[in-house]
Amino acid sequence: MIFTMAKGRKLRPPQHQKRQPGLEFRMRPQPKSGASDYVGGGKLRDRVALITGGDSGIGRAVSVLFAKEGADVAIVYFNEHKDARETKRLVEGQGRRCLLLAGDVGCEKFCRSAVKQVKRNFGRIDILVNNAAEQHPQESITRITERQLEKTFRTNIFAMFFLTKAVMPHFRKGGAIINTASVTAYRGSPELLDYSATKGAIVAFTRSLSQALAEKKIRVNAVAPGPIWTPLIPSTFSAKEVATFGSDTPLGRAGEPEEVATCFVFLASDDSSYMTGQVLHPNGGRVVNG
Predict the structure, then answer these.
(1) Quick check: 7 pLDDT over 80?
(2) Fewer CB atoms inside 10 Å of the end CB: C or N, the chain?
(3) What does the alpha-carbon distance between residue 33 and residue 24 come to, in Å, rounded to a whole number?
């Protein structure tokens, strides 16, 4: 794929998916998940990670890189079963175990059940990656319904409270929580008002939770990606917008999931042992002052 620095230039075939969540196996080109040239160094050896939205996109790339670093992985996803099975194949291809858990993270009862199943299957939980999210562009705030507003907040931020609450009794000293925020938390987005608001809440949640758990030696950090080529994109935007997605960044292209997943490896491992309450910004060069 040849990328251009020109804003608005087509970078990939126009495409659109009529359903959310989007499906990675239908995307062209396929997002890069770090399954080929990433070489692990045992940074997460024998740890257990619970990753929401792990079936595709950033979640898949994080799952694969965690496995390459020696972790077993439990993936929570909504209903994208084919994508989830592919992620499981990739994780197990690294010689690690992978548990698939389908359900709605916006439901606290499901979150409690998922955590219990991870503990039952793996015996422990060391890392929680709160990554699942949804977005629904609207040209005006007047078009954001009560149902959309609540649904977006339930998936994007309520779920982080639900899962963190459920995991806490099982966490040990040295546990790590990593939340997926967004560049929109810092720059805003006129067509993604509710989504951006949840991402701002995630930044505040990360900073506050990090202080609340510091005495327990549990670190809490976040990653705020810019435009990344994931199933959320073709399932959200028009074919024309998808074709040029990411071309307005200083680097002139959207990022690949594997380019974000390395941030999660860093924050989950002892390499970041003196960091908590912080946000990393893999966003293609946008300066966000935060």
Answers:
(1) no
(2) N
(3) 11
Q: How many residues does the chain have?
A: 290
Question: Which residues, 6 or more positions from 7, have their beta carbon under 8 angstroms from its beta carbon?
Answer: 247, 248
Which one of 38, 186, 195, 274 is the catalytic residue? Answer: 195
Q: What is the pLDDT of residues 228-286, one digit of tens each?
A: 988 878 888 888 999 999 899 999 999 999 999 999 999 999 999 999 999 999 999 99
> In what helix (H) or strand (E) does residue 51 lie, and over which residues does it extend?
strand 48-52
- Residue 54: burial class (beta carbons within 10 Å; 0-12, 13-18, 19+): buried
Secondary structure string (H, E, C) spanning 56-97: CHHHHHHHHHHHHCCCEEEEEECCCHHHHHHHHHHHHCCCCC
Question: How far apart are alpha carbons 14 and 193 in whole angstroms?
Answer: 25
Angle at 26 between CA 258 and CA 191, to 5 degrees: 75
Non-local (6+) Cβ contacts of 112 within 8 A are: 162, 166
Tell me which residue has tokens 């810019």.
226
Catalytic annotation present for 195: yes
Q: How far apart are CA 187 and CA 245, in angstroms?
A: 17
